[in-house]
Amino acid sequence: MGRLIIVSNRTPGKGPAAGGLAVALRKVLTEHEGFWFGWSGKLVEKPEPEAVFEDIEGLNVGKIDLTQHDHHAYYAGFSNSILWPSFHLRLDLATIEGHWYEGYRRVNAQFARALKPHIQADDVIWVHDYHLIPLATELRNLGARNRMGFYLHIPFPTVDALYAIPHHNELMRDLSRYDLVGMQAERDVTAFRDFADHQAPATLSGSPLRTVDFSNTEVKAFPIGSDPDAFAKLATTPAATKMVKRMQRLLEEQALILGVDRLDYSKGLPQRVEAYEKLLANNANFRRQVHLLQVAPPSRDSIKEYQETSDTLDAMVGRVMGHFAEPDWQPLTYVKRAYGQPSLAGLYRLARVGLVTPLRDGMNLVAHEFVACQDPEDPGVLVLSRFAGAAEIFEDALLVNPFDTDETAEALRLALQMPLDERRTRWETLMQAAKTHSVDNWAKHFLEQLTPADGGNKRPPVR
Ligand code: G6P
């Protein structure tokens, strides 16, 4: 295989601490010669057409600037107010402004123009996530015939949700320009096939849309993972235990329930707080015995729906505090900021319960990291949403329907009262799964599939 080029919206060092994408990919690129390409994080009036390359902690990273206007349409608009909510089946939270699509395509074309001069004939290009679906089309329009793979880090939508997205047929055609499309879970591949098999609905004018030809594109599930050995080590380092010791003093004998999520409506945070509220309301014996710590770094806060989720959560946390707190006991701590990996690793290890209950999630790496950080002698319990991709891997977690807060409250009770033997047996299976699905194996499998021994097809440029 030639060099590896990774393309994503954010480049290393720019992602929030709780987002798994940058952490996961950095490792892959250090093993393969090549570079990472993406947005610089800067908004300027007139972007330079050429990318600027710099060394970031040993990684060669090419970056381009964007205009405020294009970035708004591409990132806050089409990517995060249309694609993100639709792919997460939250059409009620989508803002369908069709004109954002032009900005989305303009930015993808700008990425392609700046990247093309740096591509060599045998380079392999690996594009990441929903911001950059049209990139293969744009690169092929400029004559690139390289092997190109696309990996979707978020769930793939059901056919109906897909049809609600303006220009969904063009987006599907864009996906067909890749040699390989990777998804997080089998459920996503099934949803994709559902579209491929039943496409061509009538348009408003009554004429059927042209069907998309997927005969040159392989679509497969490659569930992403973490680096479980590195996390296991990290959890006992002095940097991790520093925070843990202080927490232990504060908690005394209380069992810690831990949630770590970007402040995003897909994470089901209000439902989670409600489930905890029910646990305390229905089991008075747990009061003073448990403590919920929810870490939730703010995310995409220029978007109204994110501000509203934040406001809802503020009100709910206030309600639970007012109802259950005593002068000498607090039922929960809610922190709206990001923490570094060492502190998180320590907290995961200290927690008796890892509460990972998104309403829908591509994978959820917090579940992987929580498992990896447990003490094998006295492991905590993972309470996991059945709608996270991770549920296909971690069958021995306590799987819950996060919309059913009674069920989540009951799972919390079971987790808190689970005997040591059962905790150990479940954890061993979970840790084995985390190791099988490590980020190293994920990248290896994807790249093996993308670069077959015979070199695969060289695609003709798109007309
Ligand atoms: C999810 C997406 C990533 C994204 C991350 C953080 O994990 O799959 O592509 O980078 O969220 O979101 P942000 O909008 O801050 O990049």
TrEMBL record:
One of its GO terms (molecular function) is alpha,alpha-trehalose-phosphate synthase (UDP-forming) activity. GO terms for biological process: trehalose biosynthetic process. Pfam families: Glyco_transf_20. It comes from the Bacteria. InterPro entries: Glyco_trans_20 (IPR001830). Belongs to the glycosyltransferase 20 family. This is Alpha,alpha-trehalose-phosphate synthase (UDP-forming). It comes from Devosia pacifica. The lineage of its organism: Bacteria, Pseudomonadati, Pseudomonadota, Alphaproteobacteria, Hyphomicrobiales. The gene is otsA-1.
